[in-house]
Amino acid sequence: METWKTGTVVKSTGSWYNVRLDDDTIVQCRIAGRFRLNGKKLTNPVAVGDRVKVEEDPREENVGAIKEILERRNHVIRQSPRRKHDLHLLASNVDQAMVVMTIISPNLKQGFIDRFLLMTEPFDIPALIVFNKSDLYGPEEMEIYDILREIYEGIGYRMLLVSAVDGQGIEELRSALKDKTTLICGQSGVGKSSLVNAIESGLGLRTQELSDYSGKGQHTTTFAEMFPLNFGGAIIDTPGIKSLSFNHLEPQDIAHNFRELFALSDQCKFADCLHRDEPKCAVKAAVDDGAVSELRYINYLTILEEVEEQNYWERN
Predict the structure, then answer these.
(1) How many helices (H) and strands (E) would you count in the chain?
(2) pLDDT tens digits for range 208-256
(3) How many domains does the chain have?
(4) How confident is the model over 136-172, as pLDDT tens digits?
(5) Fewest CB within 10 A of the end CB: N or C in the chain?
(6) Is residue 225 in some structural domain?
């Protein structure tokens, strides 16, 4: 064990992991042994951002094996898009997470924001909501943006309006990323790679236009990868995400991680209130009064129903 070296996983390709050792050497590693997360099955037991112990191969330079994963400060996890009973680790040991959205080209899917926040909230990971392609927004799109900003800033999330094309908001975004490790997610087509290239021009991430046929984005990032930023900090770029599901969460987990609902839950009549049909529910009263966003509440109910249906057989 004395020969093991410590480093950070900076790239995952499914079967191989690039580890940057503490002396800045990059070692290509496979996994030695079986790793799980709280007994759950993982499609990728090692995540970008993991601190690991590596044993180098004496027969081949810059090749080794990951022997141990050091304790994670936090992690961001989702249901595997291909194997619905497994989990997929997006990243670990991050200081914040950022979701990139657009209102047009492609059209806004607001529910994706709330699903993204359901990944970060359990670990109290600060989340940044960034709306890209502001150069395409007219009065109608700006009105939608202002409504969403009122909702999300009202419950403590930060929102930014940016454009990778004309540079609006890029300096403010750089300031938000400086000296932090940031996970960046977004649905395909929102211009995530173009935005990252605008933040740090030397990265040269591949970009791709929207499909003329479907109006949807094409995947340009194949695997998660960490990139250092010249002005301090690092980003973890992830593949474009089509949808987010939560086979590892229980109904109460959903209720506890919509922060404005949780803040009111101690005023509900029942301690295990799911804010649906229960009498004397403080959350439903707040929705009726306009104190809680109806948009967020509808998304909450949708995810709650989905989790109950999907996870019924596993729970019983």
Answers:
(1) 8, 13
(2) 544 433 344 443 345 789 999 999 999 999 887 777 878 788 999 999 9
(3) 3
(4) 999 999 999 999 999 999 999 999 999 999 999 999 9
(5) C
(6) yes
Compute the distance between CA of residue 194 and CA of residue 163 in angstroms, rounded to an integer: 9
Reduced to 3 states (helix: H, G, I; strand: E, B; else coil), residue 125 is coil
131: helix, coil or strand? strand
Is 223 part of a structural domain of the chain? yes
* Structural domain boundaries enclosing 90: 75-237
Query: For residue 165, what are its two tokens?
Result: 């094309």
The pair of three-digit structure tokens given for residue 285, joined into one six-digit string? 């009263």
Same domain, 206 and 291: no
182 CB-side CA count, 13 A? 26
Beta-strand relationship, 127-131 and 96-101: parallel
149: tokens are: 């900003």
Residues 101 and 217 in one domain: yes
Residue 244 lies in a domain: no
> Which domain CATH number covers 157?
3.40.50.300
Q: Which two structure tokens, joined as six digits, stand for 111?
A: 């529910």
Q: How far apart are CA 102 and CA 131, in angstroms?
A: 5
Q: Are residue 64 and residue 92 in the same domain, yes or no? A: no
pLDDT tens digits, one per residue of 81-132: 777 777 888 899 999 999 999 999 999 999 999 999 999 999 999 999 999 9
Using left for φ > 0, alpha for ψ between -120 and 50, and beta otherwise, residue 221 falls in beta
Is-contact 98 184, C-beta < 8 A? Answer: yes
Question: 297: which 2 tokens?
Answer: 């509440």
